[in-house]
């Protein structure tokens, strides 16, 4: 009975990976590509700091789809795990997936902060919302996350599984394993970006509400004069 249930579950997972995963992958790549085309083709967006953050995020999102979702679909849907056949791919996939995810989340946070700064009433805060700052932040952040991912190239290795005797791409250093679980997964890709987006998104919304509240009396006066 347990074997039958397990085989049914495996078959269901395989069908979902093929018939749901591939459309999601294709739609994601097409959507991000269209974003890149729009952000690069219009002059208004090329000089906009928020659009620049979203442009970089779209670029790395494609890398994240290809390094994260695509191998997962192939492994779950067709039973082909490239990470167990190549040590280089085992290390490179984890490295690329981590770097792309962190750059993407950083740009998303920067875009939210940028909207807060752009809607502020204080000029010294508004001046930080510009394309030069955006470019420098993206370069610095990308370098930091590229260097941050180097331990993935060192500590991810192919280790034979005790149950199946097949190699598995896992972390071989206990300290890095704890850091990967509690810092990278829980903080950098979990609580921190959610908290930043929620905080500055709320502040930006509050600024927009204040702008509307201030401009409403002026509109009323204009209507009274006419």
UniProtKB/TrEMBL annotation:
Q: Which InterPro entries match?
A: GPCR_Rhodpsn_7TM
Name of protein: G-protein coupled receptors family 1 profile domain-containing protein
GO cellular component terms, alphabetically, are: membrane
UniProt-listed SUPFAM superfamilies: Family A G protein-coupled receptor-like
Alphabetized PROSITE patterns for the sequence = G_PROTEIN_RECEP_F1_2
| Residue ranges crossing the lipid bilayer per the database entry | 16-40, 52-80, 100-125, 137-159, 179-206
What keywords are annotated for this sequence in UniProt? Membrane, Transmembrane, Transmembrane helix
Is DNA repair a UniProt keyword of this protein? no
This protein's major location comes to: membrane
């Amino acid at each position: 009975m347990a074997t039958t249930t397990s085989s049914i579950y495996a078959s269901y997972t395989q069908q979902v990976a093929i018939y749901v995963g591939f459309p999601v992958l294709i739609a994601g790549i097409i959507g991000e590509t269209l974003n890149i085309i729009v952000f690069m083709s219009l002059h208004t967006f090329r000089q906009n700091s928020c659009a620049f953050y979203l442009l970089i995020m779209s670029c790395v999102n494609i890398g994240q789809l290809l390094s994260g979702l695509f191998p997962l679909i192939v492994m779950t849907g067709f039973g082909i795990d490239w990470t167990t056949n190549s040590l280089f791919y085992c290390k490179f996939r984890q490295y690329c997936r981590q770097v792309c995810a962190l750059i993407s989340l950083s740009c998303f946070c920067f875009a939210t902060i940028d909207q807060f700064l752009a809607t502020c009433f204080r000029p010294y805060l508004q001046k930080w919302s510009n394309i030069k700052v955006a470019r420098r932040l993206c370069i610095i952040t990308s370098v930091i996350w590229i260097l941050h991912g180097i331990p993935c190239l060192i500590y991810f290795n192919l280790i034979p599984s005790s149950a199946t005797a097949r190699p598995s791409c896992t972390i071989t250093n206990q300290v890095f394993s704890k850091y990967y679980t509690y810092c990278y997964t829980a903080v950098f890709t979990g609580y921190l970006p959610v908290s930043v987006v929620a905080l500055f998104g709320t502040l930006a919304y509050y600024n927009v509400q204040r702008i509307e509240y201030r401009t409403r009396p002026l509109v009323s006066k204009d209507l009274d004069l006419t």
